[in-house]
Amino acid sequence: MEIQAPKGTKDMLPSQAYKWHYVENIFREISKNFGIKEIRTPVFEHTELFLRGVGETTDIVQKEMYTFKDKGDRSITLKPEGTAPAVRAFIESRLFNEAQPTKLYYITPCFRYEKAQKGRYRQFHQYGVEMFGSKEPSMDAEVMALAMGVLKKVGLKSLKLNINNLGCPECRPKYNEALKAFLKENYDSLCETCKTRFEKNPMRILDCKEKSCKEITKNAPIILDYTCDSCNDHFSKVKEYLDVLEIPYSVDPGIVRGLDYYTKTIFEILNDDYTVCGGGRYDKLIEEIGGPEMPAVGFGMGIERLIATIEDENIEVPREDDIELYISARGEEGKMYAFKLAHKLREIGVNAEINHAGRSFKAEMKFANKIGALFNLVIGDDELGTKEAKIKRMKDREEFNIKLDNLEEIKQIIKSQK
Ligand code: HAM
Asked: Which GO terms describe its molecular function (predicted)?
């Protein structure tokens, strides 16, 4: 029987690769413009990191982690997100001793045992950015500007930036009390998970995906009515910075995000179908994971969702180079010559292909067309004798004379006459 990929996973097939490369190139290019360096962390971590980092009352920790015991009886978890691992590495490598802020980005797979559906996978990929060591509101705005800049460069048009202020450990307890007072009346109708959240972390109830809980929280008090002066000041400045950059946004008091570490600014970038990017400030996480007191802000962007949006919006993604030169050969000697020539041309940067399938000479032409080769070169007895040949441009059959031992000339013609 045929074996299929596990539910909630997706192959990136060769026919799709150019779209992934296109967005990844943009991530790297724009990150570079913002002075952000790449970090790669392991695919798995000690489970403890996410319990402390993401939060014990979140859906991710309560329902979605791929957690298992390894052969040494350690509890291991496949990373459900990239922030906690980046913070762990930052602390472990003592990067906090260097000049701050530290600006990091990653492109990583993430794993969450979620109900698989369009745009929601069990293995998905994130482009994430984390800025450590700046409490300035300009950094919140820079992070959002970066995310919007990436999406603009990719070509997306129908995106909305929603922001909110989640307060800090000073003002949030007051909000939690108000929220609990409001939810108390409907406590019995909350889902079982939310009942456990009521005492520990009532704000998590606002993020529950259960219909009944959504209904109950519809008219819940909003955090913006409870935030302290310092959080309000910070939020006003963030908005001012966004205005300076002319980045449109809406304040949405309803967003709370699905992870526990956020303080002050949070944001989401969405289209009609789903959230493509989410992030915010998390000023206490570095300390909670064992590092020094140090503020931070960042985001994660779902790459599958980004690519789905590119497709929905019919954005044309530049294709990568097809085969530039297909070399056909007659006879054993010709074949050997073609084999060596293709190798030599590849060494100097020409994308060349030869007959590896035992095709007849006639079938080779068809094949060259099928794979979209831009030029064709035939090596027969004459060519072997004179070391002169013609390369033919497939689209209009125009021919160019070449000398077989002048590789640079062949390359130059191919690159300039495509
Ligand atoms: P998050 O909102 O959980 O935040 O995930 C960020 C993005 O990852 C989402 O907006 C979405 O595009 C994508 N995503 C999440 N779950 C799935 C899924 N099951 N299938 C496909 N795509 C998905 C974080 O992970 C935070 N670490 C972001 C952050 C970084 N905040 C501060 N720094």
From this structure: ATP binding; catalytic activity, acting on a protein; histidine-tRNA ligase activity; transferase activity
CB 83 less than 6 A from any atom of ligand 1: yes
305 lines ligand 1 (CB under 6 A): yes
- CA of 277 from ligand 1 middle (Å) equals 7
Domain at 325-416, CATH from 3.30.565.10, 3.20.20.210, 3.20.20.70, 3.40.50.800: 3.40.50.800
Report the C-alpha gap between 173 and 376 in whole angstroms: 72
Strands lying side by side in the sheet with 375-379: 352-353, 325-329, 375-379, 388-393, 399-403
Give the pLDDT confidence of 46-90 residue by residue, as tens digits: 999 999 999 998 989 999 999 999 999 999 999 999 999 999 999
* Pair type for strands 160-165 and 250-251: parallel
- Could you tell me the end-to-end alpha-carbon distance of the chain, in angstroms, rounded to an integer? 46
Q: Is the CB of 64 under 6 A from ligand 1?
A: no
**Binding-site positions:** 81-83, 112, 126, 130, 257, 261-262
239 in Cβ contact with 227 (< 8 Å): no
Look up residue 117 and give its DSSP letter.
B
Provide the Cα torsion 305, 308, 309, 315; round to 10°: 140
Residue-wise pLDDT for 168-190, tens only, equals 999 999 999 999 999 999 999 99
Residue located nearest, by CA, to atom 10 of ligand 1:
277
Q: Which CATH class is domain 14-171+227-312?
A: alpha beta
